[in-house]
Structure formats: structure tokens, C-alpha cells
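Homework help thread (please don't just give me the answer)

Our assignment gives two proteins as sequence + C-alpha cell strings and asks us to describe the second one. The first is just a warm-up. Here they are:
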Amino acid sequence: MRAHLVLLLATFGVAAGADARSQIAVVGNGGPGPAKVQHLTAQLVALGPAIAPGGTQQVGLVLTLEKHWHVYWINPGDSGEPPKIAWTLPTGITASPMQFPIPQRLPLGPLMDFGYEDEVAFPVTISAASTLKPGPLHLDVQVSWLVCAQVCIPGKAHLGIDLTVQPTAPQAPLTGVLGKAITLLPKPLPAGAKFSVLGGAQQFVLTLTDGQRETNAEFYPYPAEALANQAQPPDAIANAAVQKIVPLRDGVRLTVPRSPDLATLPATLHGVFKLSDTVAYDVTTPIVPGEAAPAGSDSTTSTTTLGAIGLAFLGGILLNLMPCVFPVLFLKGLALVQTAGAEEGRNRAHLLRHGLLYALGILISFWMIVAALLVLRATGSHAGWGFQLQSPVFIALLASLIFFLALSLAGQFDIGLSLTSVGSSLVDKPGAGKQGYAGSFFTGVLATVVATPCTAPLMGAAIGFALTQSAAVVFAVFTALALGLAAPYLLLSWQPAWVRVLPRPGAWMELLKQFTAVPLFATAIWLAWVYGQLHAASGVDQIALLLACFLLLAIAGWALGRWPAKGASRIAALVLIALGLAIPLLQARSAARPGAAAQAGMGQMNAAAAGAEIVWQPYSQQSLDTARAAGHPVFIDFTAAWCLSCQFNERAVLRSADVESALRAHSFALLKADWTNSDPEITKKLASVGRAGVPTYVLYPAAAGSPPDVLPELLTKGLVLAAIERGAK
């Protein structure tokens, strides 16, 4: 911040000296040799005495400083100015811009300067035209600087150096202070190394992957270029803030606080990434908008890409056991039982194709979700797992689909692509294989769609990590999640003999199929309730419109069952389905629900007296900061009306007498982050603790500065009670 320079100079009483910069005496007469001034010695040196026509020679400005005094890097930090050099050169000679070796951080009270102490050289490459004639050559230069300790003193010098133009000039070795400075210039990233920047509201997360564990790192941003007729742009980082280092197995991650003056996130970050006093890289990389989990959270920053992929795969397998997904897997299991009596070789080949198409449907659906998330991230928006369930249109379509499928399973009609027709179409109908294959593919799509309200154990950390990484990592993690979801049925289709442990096909299968319609009808009712929650005061009216859609779908199903395989009935059914869907979709609005705290029974606990009713407050960063400033431990419940896992955890655990009693006894402040509708503040907070969806549960201990405690997605009373005890200390 250039404003800090003015403050610093005024504080130390040197503003008058800066204003009188033009009055400063210039030492030296342009001849070779050092110039001694206050607190430093300046000299122009060269690696070698000669330069060849068409060749180059390295020269440099060398500043030797008194103890405790320093000069500045090209970006001086919070105060100061870098050395400047102006050449007077003979015809045929050109000079490159002055280069700056690796700097160091120089704290000065509450500020941070970037610069050099003791001795430093600033290399310059001198180039000679090929037409230059042999003979003596004199280089003349005007130099200015600012040297500081507790006070800052500007200085100027008129320096020079003599070289000889000769036909051949052997390359001089990198010796002396100039040779050392050339070796200390920041270098490009080595082959195979990768550098990325995640830019959040309060910090930048810089990740270097170079194939080896790094334990030290610092970042120095180059100064931003001011546009024409505009003031100097603000610094990118908070220069004096602590830069947090997290060593990685194959590199290092550095968290750098963002400058509070930086209103808009830059497109790129350009600077020097320093690993040691002798190794630093000149890096320029696009900034990916997003938030990263802080050190100390449950999703520790030591999470690796391979670890996240493994967690995602296991989470996908467990997702099959969630109440929103298990009915789909169950119905696919029925299809396997139906085909158990077919010829072994033919049956196995067909089942394997079905398994592969089921997996393909899941994969393509997940890739579409990844594409949507990446597009949102590229446009500066944030979204997480289940974000599509924040759309009333999507909820209406999903509820209608599930209701229509339940009608088919209940026996009202047979739909050609229904899950229950897959096995019979393979075995009994030679021409129906195409329909069966399409059914398996779209069953995979359906499994993905109905999985979005659920977050299985292990999924949260994997998805939260992935959404802070590059597009390739996001793709890999979500692909692993999709393969985990597809794995059980894919494995059974590969080894159909394993289904022999199940009962032989019979009449029980039709009864069980019809019974499966019951949880699907229940799911449709629940989605209708969620649909109403997504609207404001008109929630009841919107539910009525969706029920009217269900009525027309039921009439369409009756037509298909009354006149099966008739073209007229199919046309009538399609018309009725279109009319039914139009009723809620044309009225769908994305208005946020007011009074969410009252609807969900959430808010901050009133701990004034034992036995007081547990009350929750709607989450906001201000309410969190206020509670922590007052010394209260804080419990945040990130939830949504459409999240089945959230509803189960709240009713079975969070609202239990034991948990409520413990929260009351330890004076917890209770905050509900309701993500039913899209809320950028809640999305950002989820990302800050390494999560990208709900349910998420975060406890902030009473001790100031303590890191948050992120609980697993599936809660138990014992787990929550233990976390409450930890947070109260």
C-alpha cells in the first residue's frame, strides 16, 4: 500500500527529506570505482572486462549496506522504493531492465518490507551491436535508492564502468557478489512442476507440486501495473500477515491473507514463490475463485488427490445404502433375480451389458454435474453437492418422475423402460433387448438424480477437497464417486451366480415389486413438501398445484393400463403428462423462504436458565463472530429441507434429550445454516471448512482461536456428546 509509505515517512520524520529528493547531492563523477554515501557503498561492476561485437556482458549495481540497514525489492512491500537506474550508453550498446534477486521479508513495526540487507547486486545484461568496432568503452549511469533502518534516507550516485570491445570475449564465471546474484534470480518452474492459486474472500491458497516434500515457502507479489490516468492499484496480499505453510508429500501449500484493499479478485497472480534463500520461482497463474478448508479442520489440508479419490469411491459405495438410493438398487436386484433361470452363458453376457450401461448412465450424469459446477465456478458463483435440489423446477420434475414410476410399480400400467421389465425383455422377448438396455442406462441416471439429496459418510471431505482443486481433480473425484455408486450392481452383473443365494423367481416378486411402490409414493410426498418449502408465503398453494400434476399423471397411467400398447393411449398419456407438468412448472418461483428459523425450529439457545427450551438462530457470519466474542462455544447445523440425511440426524440425534441437555449445560450458541435455497454466504462457509454439501456439522470451541471441529455426515449420540465435551473446554 503506497499510503503506508506516506505514514511511515511521516512517523519517522523524513517526509521533508523525501520532498527534497531533487535537492539530494549526487556522489561520484561517473568514473569507475565505488561511491561511499550515508549507510551504503554503491558500485558498478562487471563479470568480465570485455564484450564482443554481437555479444553480451553481465554488469550490475552492487550496494553494500551498513548493519541493520536495507534497500528494497521491485515491490517494496508496505513502504519504501526500489533502486532505480538510468543509463547513458554509447551508440551500439543497449541495456536490459535491472533484475532483482530473491528478496527477504523485513518486518518494520506493524508493516512488512521486501528487500535486502548486508550486500546485494542487481544484474543488468549489456548487449553490443555486431557492427561495434574494437576499442575502449565507457558505460555511464545515474542511480537512486532509498536506504532504511529506523529512518529512511534517499540517495543518488553517478557511476560508471570501463569495458573493452574485442573480437572475442570469453564468458566469465559467475563469481563475486554479481555472480551470486545472477544465480539467485527467480527461475521459471521446472519441467513437471505445477503451481495453482485458489482465491477466496480473505485469502489466497498457493499450491506448488514439484515431486518432493517442501517445508518452507514465502510469496512475494510483483507490483500491479497502474492503468492510464488511474491511481496505483492496491496490493494483492496483506504484506505483514503470517503466511501459513502446509508441507505436502509432493510439494507445499501456502495460505496468504488477501489485502483488505483488494475489492475485486484479479484474473492472475504474478510473483516470486520462494522455497529457500537460494531457490525461488517466478510464477504467473490464473486465480481460481473458491474457498479452501483452514488448517486444523476435519478435512485437513494434508488431504491428497489420491486420498480424495479413494474416499469418493468408498462414499459412492455407501451411497447405495442411503434411503434415497437403496430402492433403485433393490429394483435392479429384482431384475437380476428374474433372469437367474436363463441360460448361463447368454444370461451372463446380457447382464454384463446391463451393468455397464447402468454404470455409464451414472457416469454421464455425474459428468454433467461436474460440468455445471465448473461453469458456476468459472463465473464466480459457488455451488455444492445437491445444488440442483434448490431449484423448484427440478424438484417438481423429480417428484413427478418418482410418482409416475411408483404408479407403474404399483401395477397401474407397465412402462417399457421400467426397471421391472428389464429381465423379462432380455429373456422372453427377442426384440426387446434395446428397450432393456435403455432402461438400464436411464436407471443409472435416475440413481444419480435421487442420490443428490443424500451425502454418504466419507463423501463430504472428498467433494469439499475436490471443489477447491483444478478441473482435472474435480473430474477424477466425481468419477470415483460415480464408480462407487455403480460398483455393487456392476459387480453382481459381472458375477450373476452370486444372486443364487436369493430366493428363486416366483409370485413373491410381483408382490414385492408392488410393495416397493410404497416408499416411492412416500418419497413423492416428501418432495412435494420440499417443493412447498422452496416458496415463500405461497407454499401451500404450490403444493396443491403439484398435487394437481400428480392427479393428471395418475389419469395418464390409467390410460396406459386400460389400453396397453395402443398408440392412442400413449398419445393421450403424453398430453396428460405435459399438461400435468405445466401446472407446477409455470408457477415455479425461486423465492427464498422467510422465517426459516421458525419453520425449522432453529436459532440460538437461551441458556439463561436450566431447562430452557432449545432455540436455534439462523446462521450468519456476524452471529458466529458475536457468539465467539462472548466466549460461547458454537454448534452450526448446515442442513436443507430436501436433505434426508439431515432430517434423520436432526430427529434421531440433535433433538434427543441427552444432546439437548448437553448443549444447554455447556451454554452452546446454536446456529442453523439453512441451505434449502441457494445462499452464497452458507456456500462460502461450507467451502471454508472443506465441505461442499449438507449435512455438515461444525463445532467452534469456547477457547478463542481454536480451530473448528467438523463432524462426520452420519451422527450418533455418542459422537455428538463427545464433540460437545471437547468444544466446551
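The one we have to describe:
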Amino acid sequence: MKKSPAIPVYKNPALSADQRVKDLLKRMTLEEKAAQMMCLWQEKNSKLLDSKGNFDFTKAKASFKAGHGIGQIGRPSDAGSPPTEPWKGKNARGMAELTNAIQKFFIENSRLGIPVFCHEECLHGHAAHDGTSFPQPIALGATFNPELIERLFTMTAAETRARGGHQALTPVVDVARDPRWGRVEETYGEDPYLVSRLGIAAVQGFQGDVRFKNKNRVIATLKHFAAHGQPESGMNCAPVNVSERLLRETFLFTFKEAIQKAGAISVMASYNEIDGVPSHASEWLLRDVLRKEWKFKGFVVSDYYSIWELNYRPDTHGHFVARDKSHACELSVKAGVNIEFPEPDCYLHLVELVRKKVLKESQLDELIAPMLFWKFQMGLFEDPYVDPKEAEKIVGSDAHRKLARQAARESITLLKNENNVVPLDLKKIKTIAVIGPNANRSLLGGYSGAPKYDVTVLDGIKAKVGNRAKVLYSEGCKITIGGSWQQDEVVASNPDEDRKQIAEAVKVANQADVIVLAIGGNEQTSRESWNLKHMGDRTSLDLIGRQNELVQAMLDTGKPVIVFLFNGRPLSIVDVAKNVPAIFECWYLGQECGHAVADVLFGDFNPGGKLPITFPRSAGHLPAFYNYKPSARRGYLFDDVSPLFAFGFGLSYTTFALKNVRLKKKKIRTKDSTQALVDVTNTGSRSGTETVQLYIRDLVSSVTRPIKELKGFQKIELQPGETKTVAMDITPESLAFYDVHMKYVVEPGDFEIMVGNSSRDSDLQKVVLTVTN
């Protein structure tokens, strides 16, 4: 009797992933290894799919007749959609069926049967047809609620994995230090501590315990590594000119925290250069810091087309550190970029470079190993398939919609409420005028899909009011013509047409008891500038077009005006702030936008958002971040140096008193910890949330230190008259910095401990902590 052949080690699920990787690498040809370092995105249409976006076996067989396989498939969710409308791709069932077909093909038609990873955009929900869309990260930053962020990304992981996705190209843990930059909306704000806490929460939501046993988690990808958030002139992809100390304490900190405290598995290198070296060619950044210092064991993905940009990409820019695409391939491999996104391009030279002995095959082995490890760890070699019925059940479910609405409500930040104009009392109002270019349009922001529901401000107010009051509407003016994120050309509105619309809006407003005005930006005016025809960075932070004229026209009616701002970056709204009695900052709230706005407007939900980024008075006031150095804000001729609205600021429909700030221990050693405590009382008549914030300043130090740095926060809910004591830890990590010798230390001396409800000095109470050797 013949013995059945022994199962290969790499196919034995009883063995460890490390053992299986080691065995598989021994069996792989050079071509098979190179294939694992490549991805198909738009090329999947020509190589895997028919004209309707369905899997085409004949086409796939012809495209992959050599049987080498492929490492990743990019965004199967957009299959069958026009390039300018990727959200019109596959629904939940359709994507699940497609990813199953793709997996089946590569497992059965490659020599070694290696499954593929499918990556997806998941910035604020799975950016796909029917995916649940919640607020943009900058809005989530306003929640100061890591537990909520973890729940949101747990939801997104479940939706993405159910459809056959494995890797999310998020969270963005860039620290946004220049509001002119169009990608501010993708970040959690300007503060490294806040960004790190929310980044950790997002990673934990995506990855869970990283065992991947229940097919409801995906790999998180930290981006953009590194320092993408303070580009020269605020221009996307421009050089970042910072010292190593600032780089480590502000920009690298968020990545280190998410890797070491949350176990992030993947990192995306950034488009920019630091100290003359582009990230995709930086051995110091990707090997010395990331892998050697931080002990990162995961894998680095390239940003889209960025390895090509080491040479020159005509439609955007180049770094000119590579002679050609072959040289770019060499530089990125040596730097430690494991896989090229989004198409086979520069890494098509891998085999040739190894054969010419420019690269060693062992260098490829080193880069492939972690990607194979996670394919084993996710169970793809045993069961790469998903259940289309389950995908249909999970994606866009009522439970997910409810969570998205809660996130939207918590994101809304009340900036001004003169004479308690809000919340509105429907018993006292007969007619409401809903006015403005953002009143009746989708407000999802960038990297969005097409959710099952997308509620406008107008629709949300109408649904809330019902027949209790009359709701009128007028657009008022336009911001740009069209305004879609995908629409390359930005067309300015016509001044004459705008003024006609403003006149119409005045007629509508004059019939109402109150005016709700939805203004700000749109998806075109603040977005990723990805090529020379698709811009999104600005030189001005002013309201675009005739919006200020619209605001003044509404004020001139004599009616109460309530402004809701929707925008991807802070705006310099000096006149609005001075003259409008009630102002809310909403950013982009996701699919439940209108419902959340109505919940807050009519007092069914008490707003508790806090600004995650400073609002400057103008672009000329930049930089305006709160954690500046002692010599940085001496003053301006003819202008106020202070921000319009400060980091951490946000009002409520109730009031809070913070008293008795104290330290558990007033004196500690450099290796010891203590706590700052404060008693918080709700002194108003409504229940509400308050975010207590802890800031620290080293009063005398070997190198200059910021005037204050956020080092802790706690969001609490209080009933009227209720008091709670909040305790926040002060650890050596809270006090440490890179000293004059670039050693990460706690220096003995006095530290000012500040506790309050915003970063403004007037909102903070101070005590002194003494630290000794």
C-alpha cells in the first residue's frame, strides 16, 4: 500500500507561523518571491476582471500563466466602478463573491497556492459601496474618546473582513501642524499625545488581539511615516524641515506608541523627504529607527506610486535620488519597503537586480517573511473565503448606523452660544430657515464610500421637526461648482449668480423665526493634493466665495443666526466669530450628519466636542499650534497673536466648575509617578460631558521646551449638581524629553502641572511638581 505523500510543512496548520514561513521560503523561486512584493489595483481590471467588474477566469489565466501568484490586490471594493467614482463598485455580497473568486484562482493556479491579501481604504469607515461612514478623523479627534474610536474601528474591521478585505490603509497618525495642508481632515489633530491615544485605539479596534480567529479583524496600517503633517508651505508631499529632536518628540512619537502599545502590524512610508532623504529611500527611518530601535516586526508598504517618485513622476513631482525605476527599486528594497503599491512598477526589476547581484535574494526573503507570516496568522492558507450572506448582514447594519450617529453627535463642538441661543425650543418656533451651500449636500469628506444612508442637514432637521414647525430652504451661494472630492478641476462660483442666490436666501430667511446657516468648505477645498490637476492645499484659510456676504445678509435680517461649519481644516472665521451668536464646528460627520446636527440643535444631545486643532485668525498667523516654544509668540504689529479658538476648547449647554487641583505627591524622584486630581461639578441644569485636560511644562531644562504639552485627558459625564474627582497619572514618560545630548531623560527640577478644560491659560489651574534625583 502506497503511503500518502507527507504534507508540506508550510501547509501544516499545527505548526507555528514562523516554521511555516521558513519552509515556504525554501520552496519559492526568485520570481515567486518577487510576486509577493507586488500588488494589483487598477490593473486588476485588465488582468482579472471583465467589463462589469466580475472575475474573469480566462483573463486571469492568461495574465498569470506562469503561476507565480501576487502579493496583494488593491481595493477589490471598487471593481466595476468608473475610475472617478470608486464608491460605485461592489456591494457587500458582490465584493465577498469577488474576493472568494480571486482567492480560489491564486490558490489553485499558482504553484505553491499562496493566498493574496486584499487591502482597502478605511479612513472613517470602509470606503466602499454600502460601508458605514462615520466622522472624519479630525472630527473624531474632537471626541477625546478613545473607547468610542476603538468601537468604530472594530465595526469597520468587521465590515471590511466580512467582504474579504485583510488590510486597512489607516489609521493616519500624522500630527497636523499646518492647516494649509489639505489632508488635515485625515488626522486626529495637532497634538502628538491626543493623536497617539486615538491611534492606539484605532489599531486595537482593527486588530483586536491579533489572533484573527473569528474573521472580524484586519491589519492596521499606520501612515504616513513620517512627519507628513508639517510640509513646507503646507503643500502635500513637500519636504519636512524639522530637527531630529522635534521629529522624535512630535512626529515619530505617535507611530512608536501605536507600534509598541497597540502592536500595529503595518506601516506606510510617506511621500515627503526628511533632511534630504525621501522616506521610501531612508534606511535610517525604516531600518535603524523602525526596526532596530523600536523592534518593529511587521511590514512596510509604499504609498501609491511613491517608489516611482524617487526618480520622477511627471504628473506630480520627483525626488531625483534615483536614476530610473530600477534604481528606485534598489533604494526602496535596501531601505526596507516590503511591498510596492498600487501596481507592479519599480519592483518589476526585482528579479533582474538579484540576478545582476545588485540585490541579494536574502534581502527579498527578509522583506517577504513578515507578509507571509501574517497570511499564515490570519488563517488564509486554511480558509481564505468569506460568507457573502454574512457580509450582506453585517455591512451597513442598524447597529452600525446607531454607532455612527453617536460618533457624529460627540464630534460636534460648540464654539459660541451668546445669550443661550441654542438649543432651540420648538414650542417657541414656527418657521426655521435652513440656509447655505452645505445645508443640503452630502458632507462625507475624503476617502469616503457610498453608505446606505447619507442624511443632509436639511433632511435631518426636517425629520426631527416633523409637523411641529415649518422648514424652509435656500442654498444661499455656492462654494465651488460641483465640489466632489474626485472632481479634479476646481471651478470657482460666479459672483453674480451667488449674489442672486443670496437675495433669494434673504427672502426665505425673512419668513422664518430663526436661521440655521450651514457653511464652511467642501470636499474640493480641503483634500489630498495627489497630482498637479487635483489640488487641495491653500494659501488662505478664509471662507471661499461669497460666504461671508451670505453670513452678513442673514445677520442683517435681524433674525437669530446659528452657524454650523463643515470643513476639513480650521478656517479663519474672524467675522463669523465676532458677529454670529451661535457657532458649531462639525468638520465632516459621516452618513448620520443631519440627524446628529438636529439632535444637538434641538437639545436632544448636549454637545461636548473639543477642538483637536487650533483655529488661527488668519494664514498669516501660522504656525498656530498651542504647544509652542517660549520665544515663539512674542506678538504682531497691528494684530492679536492669540488664536481665534484654542486647542481643547469647546462649550456645552451646561456649565462645569473645576476646583481643588492638587497632586497626590508634590515631590517625586525621576523614576517615580504621581497623580493630578481635580474636583469637577456640573453647575448647570442639564447633564453633559466635560473633557478634563492635563498639561505639563518643564520650567527650566537643558533644551527649550514647549510652554505646555497635553499629557493626559479624561472625558466624564455629570448630572446637574453632580461632582466627580478626576485623577490623571503623571509618569516618567509624561516628563521625559530628549536632552541636550539627545538622551531621553527626566531632568530634575520643577514642573508646572496645569489642569482645565482647554489649553487656554484662562481655563487652566496650576500647581508645581518637584522632581529630584
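TA reply:
I won't write it for you, but here's a hint about the kind of observation we're looking for: Residues 40 and 693 are 45 Å apart (CA to CA).
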